[in-house]
Amino acid sequence: MAISLSAAVAVFIGIYAVVEIKRSIPTDDREYMDPLPLLMRLSWPIINFFAHYIGEHLGVEYIERTKLRLRQSGLGYLMTPQQFFGVKLCSALVFALGSLWAMSMLDAPAGLVPVGFALFGFFFPEINLTDRRKKIEKEIIRMLPVYLDFITMAVEAGMNLNGALMQAVDKGPAGALNIEFSKVLRDIKAGVGKLEALRNMSDRVQVREVANLVSALAHAEKSGASVGNTLRIQADQRRVERFQRAEKLAMQAPVKLVGPLVLFIFPTTFIILFFPIVTQLMDIL
């Protein structure tokens, strides 16, 4: 009876502590934020807990650097730098607990294995962020000529640049560049200047081709040059650069195939060719 009563009291205290901690954490207003993925939604209370109690002690330099990386990875409207640090801590906890469970299933001493997995889990979101950034950059570079063609045709048909951007967003293929141009239109509707909104996009994506486009448009606006001709030149140049990149990758393909050939294909071929010879020699000897 005493044990049951003690257990009930412990459960009550635990629930009360969790409720009080949850009350102390400010409500996360996500009205203007992107929706959370399912897995992150399930772990969001823990992430917010870490972000509230530990994120406030982060340095200003780390917060600004992480904010820039989140914007470049397309996650600027998904979480704050403090919440991203909470994601890192939550990931470290999951990896550590997973390694402990795996070692217990194998009946092996854990030792420092959970510590190693926790460190890997802590840096795993950073690795994922870097990979996501590289994929977005490649996609933007690949799709930029397509969108420039849409914008150029709309401008040459008599539309202004704002209307051309709207047409490109509506008719263009979905992807990272579509999202970025949508943000440009959203900034313009909020009262930001057209060139300033484009410069903000250039600062977000940190892609040389986009920076060149924004500089060319700014120069055309200031000098009174034809925006349509400027866009046409930019589209042709980006298309030539894309073709040159494809040629470069095609020339690099044989060099990259040497490693797999030497490590995997050639040894297997030698085994298939020489195995019958070796077996016959062994029978003779």
TrEMBL record:
This is Type II/IV secretion system protein TadC, associated with Flp pilus assembly. It comes from the Bacteria. One of its GO terms (cellular component) is plasma membrane. Keywords: Cell membrane, Membrane, Transmembrane, Transmembrane helix. Residues 148-273 form the Type II secretion system protein GspF domain. The lineage of its organism: Bacteria, Pseudomonadati, Pseudomonadota, Gammaproteobacteria, Chromatiales. InterPro entries: T2SS_GspF_dom (IPR018076). Pfam families: T2SSF (PF00482). Its main location: membrane. PANTHER family: INTEGRAL MEMBRANE PROTEIN-RELATED, PILUS ASSEMBLE PROTEIN. It comes from Rheinheimera sp. BAL341. It is a multi-pass membrane protein. It is found in: Cell membrane. The chain crosses the membrane at residues 41-63, 84-104, 110-129, 257-278.
